Amino acid sequence: MAQVGTFELAVRLGVATVAVVGPTLLFLGLWRLLLWLRDDELVKALAERGVVEAPAPSPVDVLAGASGGSECGTCGTVNVRGADVCRECFSSLE
Questions:
Q1: The model's pTM
Q2: Residue 1 resides in a domain
């Protein structure tokens, strides 16, 4: 078996260290980047100005549209077929 020199051993240990520690550091860097992008101050400022988009439709919205649900006469919300009360304003649908 060949003997490993000091320089070669140092290179191998360096490569092993990078292979073990590198992915962890990259993940932590990505995590910090995502936290920075979230920036609560920016989100609050956009919400106050009304720039933030409306929330995505809920599963009830999709089901109501697909099943031919009834529309509330008071607020105009489409409700699931068979509903007795509007899910938005709670007025009677009958």
A1: 0.39
A2: no
